[in-house]
Design a protein that fits this description.
Shape: globular
CATH topology: Growth Hormone, Chain: A
GO biological process, one term: sodium ion transport
Keywords: Membrane, Transmembrane, Transmembrane helix
Protein name: Glycoside/pentoside/hexuronide:cation symporter, GPH family
GO molecular function, one term: symporter activity
CATH superfamily: MFS general substrate transporter like domains
Structural class: mainly alpha
Distance between the termini: 24 Å
Radius of gyration: 22 Å
Number of helices: 18
Organism: Propionispira arboris
Order of helices and strands: HHHHHHHHEHHHHHHHHHHE
CATH class: Mainly Alpha
């Protein structure tokens, strides 16, 4: 009985405002740490793996990324519709953590496996595994990130949850940045392909264990009834076209993650060929994410002092300054190079802590503006933003490498070095600046407006109890499935 009371402990008298326990916050947040062991491997190392280990040309890799993002434009919205139309016995959104865990792990290992096939066979293998891995990532992550909307309606608790979650997420990135270069050499013993494969086996075992554990700790307290009003194509289009803040968030995620993907992808080329210090790749990669672990916990404090919009702007500012400064630092100045990387990573941490915390605000806005509550549809914009950022951060660097005639594992020409420098500094700085301008000019959901929207929604729910789109499980006498 005591456990049940703790489960529904209120953080405020408002409907749905529940306090989240430490175990649940950590359990939920671990998912991002675990998933990032694979996802950050894609962002940081897959391009280098494909060009320098697997044996694909930069042009082939660029085309692969471009076509994969076309599939994402179909699959990500479809997954959002599936999540809203289904009603699993054990929860609306959290069961996908268990459903997708093992298939995701198997495909991740196969993605970082070099098959004994001819070039065409290896190219086909790369397409199949890369497509499947991204498909399964969405299968898990879209419902998972929708969970925040059914765990509590309290914006303060959601901010706390997402801040801890992003700390774990960035910690997963630190593990990848530090250990993939080290473990791939240790496990490979001269066979780089084998080293990458065995490293991924280890990371996958950790990821799958985390997903199953987290499934047991997450509690859905707000029962979404969207399966009673199934999403149609018309509903989906209406939800997207009548959600201006959601579209801006989509662009924000494209910009923030493209900034990260570009710097992660370029870093290994920059340190190996421009700085001529491949021995420092691991440290440089760690500095791409470790400072972000430090800055994420400061986001709730910054929200209270300078508010959400200015916190996001500060993140993009640090990102732009750190990257732009790298362009003028001589290759011999290792300390200054690492300092520039630290500054940009601090900005990225502020972005991660901020952007994920303001998504639930847009879920409230979407219901307020359309009269329907489909969290997974709103989050589709976010997963699409992630996938488009992978296209921007994968296709453009690969295209730059191809255009400057990059050839792996040799001394690079000055033209190639200039291209690598631009994609390490100038390009991500430009992405940060453009995204900042778009956000500051067009994003309109301030804290006061969100409070007003939630108050209006409370009134609507009280006046339409018979056809409410969700229920509080504490108010249901026997918790029936509908």
């Amino acid at each position: 009985m005591g456990k049940s009371l703790n489960l529904f402990e209120k953080s405020a008298p408002n409907p749905g405002f529940y306090k989240l326990g430490r175990k649940e916050i950590v359990g939920y947040s671990l998912v991002d740490g675990g998933m990032n062991l694979v996802f950050q491997s894609l962002l940081m190392f897959i391009t280098f793996f494909y060009t320098d280990v697997y044996g694909l040309s930069a042009a082939e890799v660029s085309l692969l990324y471009f076509i994969a993002r076309g599939w994402d434009l179909i699959w990500d919205p479809l997954m959002g519709v599936i999540a809203e139309r289904m009603n699993p016995k054990t929860g609306k959104y959290k069961p996908y953590l268990a459903y997708g865990s093992i298939p995701f792990g198997i495909i991740a290992i196969l993605t970082f496996t070099v098959p004994e096939l001819g070039h065409d066979g290896k190219l086909a293998w790369a397409y199949v595994t890369y497509f499947l891995l991204n498909t399964l990532y969405t299968f898990i992550i879209n419902p998972y990130i929708s969970c925040t909307t059914v765990m509590t309606a309290d914006p303060v608790q959601r901010t706390k949850l997402n801040s801890v979650r992003m700390t774990f997420a960035q910690s997963g990135g630190v593990v990848v940045a530090l250990f993939i270069p080290i473990l791939s050499k240790l496990f490979g013993q001269g066979d780089t392909a084998l080293g990458y494969q065995l490293t991924m086996v280890l990371l996958v075992c950790i990821t799958c264990s985390i997903l199953f554990y987290s499934y047991t700790t997450v509690h859905e307290r707000i029962k979404i009834r969207s399966h009673l009003d199934p999403v149609t194509l018309k509903n989906y289009i209406y939800q997207i076209t009548h959600n201006q803040p959601g579209v801006i968030l989509f662009l924000l995620f494209v910009g923030a993650y493209a900034f990260s993907t570009i710097t992660s992808t370029a870093g290994i080329y920059y340190m190996t060929y421009n700085v001529n210090r491949p021995d420092l790749v691991a440290i440089f990669s760690v500095l791409n994410v470790l400072p972000s672990v430090i800055s994420v916990p400061f986001v709730p404090l910054l929200f209270r002092t300078i508010h959400k919009k200015n916190t996001v702007a500060l993140g993009f500012f640090f990102g732009a300054v750190g990257c732009a400064a790298l362009y003028v630092v001589p290759y011999s100045q290792i300390f200054m190079i690492m300092t520039c990387k630290t500054i940009s990573a601090l900005g990225y941490g502020l972005l991660m802590g901020s952007l994920w915390s303001i998504i639930p605000d847009d879920v409230e806005y979407a219901e307020y503006n359309t009269g329907k509550r489909y969290p997974a549809i709103v989050y589709t914009l976010i997963t699409l933003g992630l996938k488009v950022s992978m296209a921007v951060g994968g296709v453009i660097p690969a295209w730059i490498l191809a255009s400057v005639r990059y050839v792996p594992n040799i001394q690079q020409t000055q033209e190639a070095k200039d291209g690598i420098l631009f994609m390490s500094s100038g390009l991500p700085a430009m992405v940060c600046i453009v995204t900042l301008i778009i956000f500051y000019l067009f994003y309109s959901l301030t804290e006061d407006r969100v409070t007003s929207i939630m108050a209006e929604l409370d009134i609507r729910h009280k006046n339409t109890q018979g056809v409410a789109k969700y229920e509080l499980l504490e108010d249901m006498e026997e918790n029936p499935r509908i």
